[in-house]
Structures are given as structure tokens and as C-alpha cells.
Amino acid sequence: MTSVVVLDYGSGNLRSAERAVARTGADVTVTSDLDAAAAADGLFVPGVGAYAACMAGIEQLGAGPVIAERVAAGKPVIGVCVGMQIFFDSGVEHGVETKGLGLLPGVVSKLDAARIPHMGWNTVEIPDNSEVFQGLPADVRFYFVHSYAARDLDLLKSAGATVTTASHDRPFAAAVELGSLTVAQFHPEKSADAGYAVLRNWVAGL
Amino acid sequence: MTVAVRVIPCLDVDAGRVVKGVNFVDLRDAGDPVELAAAYDAAGADELTFLDVTASSDARGTMLDVVRRTAESVFIPLTVGGGVRSPGDVDVLLRAGADKVGVNTAAIARPALISEIAERFGNQVLVLSLDVRRTAEQPGGRSAGQPGGRSAGQPSGWEVTTHGGRRSAGLDAIEWARTVAELGAGEILLNSMDADGTKAGFDLDLIRAVRAVVGIPVIASGGAGAVEHFPPAVAAGADAVLAASVFHFGDLSIGEVKDSLRAAGSPVR
């Protein structure tokens, strides 16, 4: 049975992530145990709230190297919402720049939009070579709730990433697939059947 | 903007049971909030809001159990409001599986609560609930900011109320909306106590007046009685629409409301 660890580092709606991954049939464990995080077939990194607080939680647990080693070794990792944003070089919130894990290029910055937070169900532009969005209709919607995002799409593409975009007045990265790393700005665990399909695709690839 | 207009059913929960009567088809137990939540999820609801109307504090554990059981089986966002007085209360609800938490009276008593919650959990978890009524002198149909629309009650013509609209909080509603957005609320649940229960439509002037002063999402509530009532609320500036009894009694379905919004040119899921 495919094993997935949901990383407990003090952030995120862990129970929702656990239930949503379990729905795909995977064997899910919510834990802060880094050996378990290293050994699992897939690692789920949640995250809500402030960028700096999430990075502080990752550092306090000492999870950064384990996550980086997994990505380097081609072992699947998925990051969601702020758990996506921390994979970038840095995040800027309220004028304070916080260093991220640096596994994806670019800075996470405030959305340039009339209505912030970006809250609700939005459509995405899915590139043909995406694996996690396979089989989903073009008009599918996912649940977003965030004020910050990775917005330098060209930088991501030039790094060879598969970038799924969404637009809230202006485009931003809704999801990125690069090697064994998958990240999503929306909440698959709160996106009903569409989110389930993404998680099912991810688990199927483990 | 392509984000869809959210259609949100609201359930009043007292000691673990849905109150204000529910007449939803094909339910084994219409009083069970978990079963009703699943039915609304299946019907296409974009979010769910539980309002804990339990008067006694010892029944809070029952509400947490309801939240836990709902989060087990329903994979759409869940907001829980009622009786939230501290960041600790927010923490307990989020851990039980709530995605957002509604705050109302406690923030009126102590506005710093808003920033305390926003700093600890992020703006996105905080739905500031606002129960608004027109002050006596304001004639209907005038929006805030118009020279003739001012009254002796409050400068904008709208005031904040507590206790289900029965008591004035002594605050100008439009000014309070601006304040809560500045303090870090993630969105405003804007409930018109004048329109609530009338089924005569949303208070569009109120939606416009609040929309004009905040950049955060606004959820329109109060007065929905027919599908035609929803598109004007969106045109007035609402990002989401919330209703209770019209959904519970089957007067309107989530799908019908979405069809009406779609026909008016709004994106829906």
C-alpha cells in the first residue's frame, strides 16, 4: 500500500489533509517524525497563515534538509498553499523577506489585485504535460484562499517546471511540477471532487 | 476576475442539532448537521457555514464533535461562528477541522481580537460577521456617502447591532467595516437585519456602501427569497451570497441560484 506522511510542523489543517489523502486509498500518517517523512512513498507539506511562521516551524523541526534530500533523490513531495510558497527562494509579507527552502526559483509576493485575499473557486490553465491535472476538464475549479503567490512564471518555466496558472486580476502560479516536487497554491483537500482527482493522480504516481 | 461567486448555505446549530427547521429532501435525519452538510456539498454548495447558537458553554464540546465529523466527510471549506472570544477559541475550532472562523460580538467589545487572530492564524481564517440595520432617520434607498442620506443615528445611516439585531452596538456600520478590514479580517459576512427574514431581496445599498470602503471579500446575507435576488447582490459588489431558510425549506436550490447567477453573467462553479 502506498504510504504518505502529512508533515506536522505546527501549521495547516492536518486533519483535512489526512482525510483527503486517505480518500485516495493511500496509507496516511500525520507525524513530525523526520525518519518517517524521509521513508514514506510521498510527503505532504501543508501550511496556512504567515510565511515566516511556517518557515520557523520547518526550521524548528529541522525538516528542511529532509525535504531537500527527498526532492534531490527524486522522491515525491507535495506542498499546499503556504506549504507551496515555502519551496521558493523567499517570501515577502508586510515588507519582511523570509528565506524559503529554495527548491523553486523566485519570490512569493503579494497579489496585485483589487480584491485580497483571493478567496474562492477559480479556474486554472493546465499545460498539456501536467501529470497531476491529467483527466480534468478545462473548466475545472479549485478552492483558493491566499493573499500572496509566486508570480514570476517565466522564471519557473525557464527552470524547466510545468506551470499551471490561475488569474486573479493578474496571473500567478496555481501549481508547479518540477521533477519529484509538486506544489499547489489552491487547497486540493478542500476542492471537492476536483481536488480529490489531483490528489489521486499524485498518489497514483508514487 | 474569474473567481466564482460563492453560494453558501448557513446552518444554525444548537447543542449539535440543526435548528430553525430543515425540510431537505431525502435525509434520514434532517436535524443532523453532518448529514445536511454532506447533502449541501452534493448539491454544489461552495462553502458551508455553521453558526453555533448554543447558549451554554458546556455544549461547546458537542459543536466541536459536529465540526470534526463534518470535516471527516465533506471536502469543501467550513466556516464556524458563534461564541468565539479569543485566539484560543479559534485554535480549538481550526484543530477540529474548521477552515475559517466567524467572529462577531467579541470583536465589537474588543477590536484588538481581530488583529490577534489575524497575526496568529492569518487573515484568511477570520470572517468578521456584521449584523447591520438602518438607523431610524435614514429614508430607504439612499446609499452611504450621499449628502442627503445621513441621519442623526450614525453618519452613514447604518449601525452595528448585537443580540440578533435587537440591540445597538453604538457603532457606524460602514466605519466598523472599514476598521475590521484594516485590523486584518479576511472577509466580511454582511447581514442586513432589516432584510433578514423578509424574503424581499438583499439590502443592495448596504452592500454597495460596504463594498466602497473595503478591499476584502464581502458575503451578502439577509433577505434572499427568490433566485432573482442573487444577481443584484453580486452587481452591488458581493463576492459571495449566503442564505439559510430558503435553502433548508427547499424554496430554492443551490443549483437554481447558480443558474440565475450564470444567466446574469457571473462565473459560478
Automatic annotation (TrEMBL), chain A:
Q: CDD domains of this UniProt entry?
A: GATase1_IGP_Synthase (cd01748)
Compartment list: Cytoplasm
**Gene3D superfamilies xref list:** 3.40.50.880
Q: Which reaction does it catalyse?
A: 5-[(5-phospho-1-deoxy-D-ribulos-1-ylimino)methylamino]-1-(5-phospho-beta-D-ribosyl)imidazole-4-carboxamide + L-glutamine = D-erythro-1-(imidazol-4-yl)glycerol 3-phosphate + 5-amino-1-(5-phospho-beta-D-ribosyl)imidazole-4-carboxamide + L-glutamate + H(+); L-glutamine + H2O = L-glutamate + NH4(+)
Q: Identify the EC number(s).
A: 4.3.2.10, 3.5.1.2
Q: Which Pfam families match?
A: GATase
Descriptive protein name:
Imidazole glycerol phosphate synthase subunit HisH
NCBIfam families the UniProt entry points to: IMP_synth_hisH (TIGR01855)
InterPro entries tied to this protein: Class_I_gatase-like (IPR029062), GATASE (IPR017926), Imidazole-glycPsynth_HisH (IPR010139)
Q: What does this protein do?
A: IGPS catalyzes the conversion of PRFAR and glutamine to IGP, AICAR and glutamate. The HisH subunit catalyzes the hydrolysis of glutamine to glutamate and ammonia as part of the synthesis of IGP and AICAR. The resulting ammonia molecule is channeled to the active site of HisF.
- Whose protein is this, by species? Paractinoplanes durhamensis
- The gene is hisH
Q: In which pathway does it act?
A: Amino-acid biosynthesis; L-histidine biosynthesis; L-histidine from 5-phospho-alpha-D-ribose 1-diphosphate: step 5/9
Automatic annotation (TrEMBL), chain B:
Keywords of this entry: Amino-acid biosynthesis, Cytoplasm, Histidine biosynthesis, Lyase
Q: Which organism is it from?
A: Paractinoplanes durhamensis
Subcellular location(s) of the protein: Cytoplasm
Give the catalysed reaction(s), semicolon-separated. 5-[(5-phospho-1-deoxy-D-ribulos-1-ylimino)methylamino]-1-(5-phospho-beta-D-ribosyl)imidazole-4-carboxamide + L-glutamine = D-erythro-1-(imidazol-4-yl)glycerol 3-phosphate + 5-amino-1-(5-phospho-beta-D-ribosyl)imidazole-4-carboxamide + L-glutamate + H(+)
- What PANTHER family has UniProt attached to this entry? IMIDAZOLE GLYCEROL PHOSPHATE SYNTHASE HISHF, IMIDAZOLE GLYCEROL PHOSPHATE SYNTHASE SUBUNIT HISF/H IGP SYNTHASE SUBUNIT HISF/H
Q: How does it assemble?
A: Heterodimer of HisH and HisF.
Q: Where is the active site?
A: 12, 131
Q: Which Pfam families match?
A: His_biosynth
The entry's protein name is Imidazole glycerol phosphate synthase subunit HisF
Region of interest: Disordered: 137-166
Gly residues bias locations: 142-151
Q: In which pathway does it act?
A: Amino-acid biosynthesis; L-histidine biosynthesis; L-histidine from 5-phospho-alpha-D-ribose 1-diphosphate: step 5/9
